[in-house]
Write a structure and sequence with these properties.
140 residues, alpha/beta, Oxidized Rhodanese, domain 1, five-stranded parallel beta sheet, 8 helices, 5 strands, elongated
């Protein structure tokens, strides 16, 4: 115990920086937990598509979508989702899986859809994770 007190008194900046990193990491985790967005793995996405008739909404730009996307994925940018809810309304009774490049933007869109009452999930890691898991990709 005496060694810990000596260390803290000799290295106050290092101890303060460590405490700050811990507090920031805790805040980030609390924000993630509060969003209520369920991030799912590529293998879980496949199961949901096959067993639960889930629909995949790809929110990447159309040119990137055409270079490679999940089979039967629907291309809708996040702007289109916000402005044209009629196109999305036909999927209300089905689970919706939102994907983007890295899984960050899809979490934001999924949070918005969750507020509007959709059964929504976000592909954890986005299309990068899908490709790394060697899942099938369709190119146009």
């Amino acid at each position: 115990m005496q060694d810990l007190i000596t260390f803290i008194s000799n290295h106050p900046v290092l101890c303060l920086a460590t405490a700050l990193v811990f507090v920031l990491a805790t805040i980030v985790e609390l924000i993630r937990a509060r969003r209520n967005i369920i991030n799912i793995s590529p293998s879980r996405v496949t199961m949901m598509i096959n067993h639960d008739n889930a629909v995949v909404i790809d929110i990447r730009a159309n040119d990137i979508y055409r270079k490679g996307h999940i089979i039967d994925a629907v291309s809708m940018t996040s702007k289109e989702l916000r402005e044209n809810s009629k196109r999305l309304e036909k999927f209300r009774i089905r689970p919706i899986i939102v994907t983007c490049n890295a899984g960050i933007e899809s979490q934001k869109v999924a949070a918005l859809l969750l507020k509007h009452g959709y059964n929504v999930y976000s592909l954890s890691g986005g299309m990068r994770a899908w490709i790394e898991a060697q899942m099938p990709v369709v190119k146009e």
